Amino acid sequence: MKFRPALWPTLFTVPSIVLLLALGTWQIQRLEWKNDLIARIAARFDAPAVPLPASGIDVDAMEYHKVSVTGQFRHAAEVHLVATSVNGNPGYHVITPLERADGAGFVLVDRGWVPQERKAAERRAEGQVAGPVTVTGVVRKPWHQGWFVPDNDSARNLWFFGDAAAMQKVMGVTAPPLFVEADAAPNPGGFPIGGQTRLNIPNNHLAYAVNWYGFTIVLLVIYVMWHRRQGRL
After folding, report:
1. SS3 state of residue 67
2. Are 127 and 187 contacting, i.e. CB atoms less than 8 angstroms apart?
3. What distance in Å separates the CA atoms of residue 154 and residue 79, rounded to the nearest whole number?
């Protein structure tokens, strides 16, 4: 029996298959891009620390690079970013402006995580180090407010996303649009706990591609079976 395709099922199925195949191929391309991105980030993260430039910082090029910077913390201007630790415990990241020893202004340092009961600076006084310090950490870019993320409340010093410009305004400093996330070197008294940088970048593109290609096969099977039942195949 010759195949006699029905008009309307064919007009629906053919463009749908083309679209599904295109979506699957697009996800394969995204997979290649994401794998390359992860490899580049890992290479930056594994490289030795370099001094943070005094000016002309290309934040995109510097992100995830390890840097070192020397200066003095202005603890009275610290802000508290609501966050969990790398182990998933609730608390805050303590972000403090560091006045650079080289006269290049300030840089915002994410000193690490503290539990809720250590949010107040007086509950971790030993960690409020005075005098010159050298911080080694990872450069991170600011990030925008996501869906269902509350507004930052600067009046209560409660921050929910990394708006570096707004933080600088509250702190009364001028700094590059970046954070230096301190490494795991211990602070006196144990808090804040550094080394909170996370490199778990989602990469689900292969699963998405399999889904789109799977939908293509299912639709093609349905199309063929329908025509067989109708005696057209």
Report:
1. strand
2. yes
3. 9
CATH for 49-190, options being 1.10.8, 2.30.29, 1.20.950, 2.40.50: 2.40.50
Q: Which of 124-128, 174-178, 223-227 has the lowest mean pLDDT?
A: 223-227
Residues of the chain with CATH 2.40.50: 49-190
Six-digit token string for 49: 């620390």
Is the backbone of residue 17 left (phi > 0), alpha (psi -120 to 50) or beta? alpha
Q: CA-CA distance, 124 to 144, in Å (whole number)?
A: 30
Position of tokens 């000193």?
Answer: 111
Structure tokens at 168: 């600088």
Looking at the predicted structure, is the pLDDT value of residue 1 above 70? no
What does the pLDDT average to over 42-60? Answer: 92
Contact 178, 108 (CB under 8 A): yes
Q: Report in angstroms the alpha-carbon separations of 165 from 85, 159, 161.
A: 24, 12, 12
192 prior amide bond cis, ω within 30: yes
Element (H, E) at 21: helix 7-46
- Give the integer Cα–Cα distance in Å for 228 and 84: 57
71: burial class by Cβ within 10 Å (0-12, 13-18, 19+)?
buried
Q: What is the pLDDT of residues 144-203, one digit of tens each?
A: 999 999 999 999 999 999 999 999 999 999 999 999 999 999 999 999 999 999 887 889
Cα–chain-centroid distance for residue 205? 17
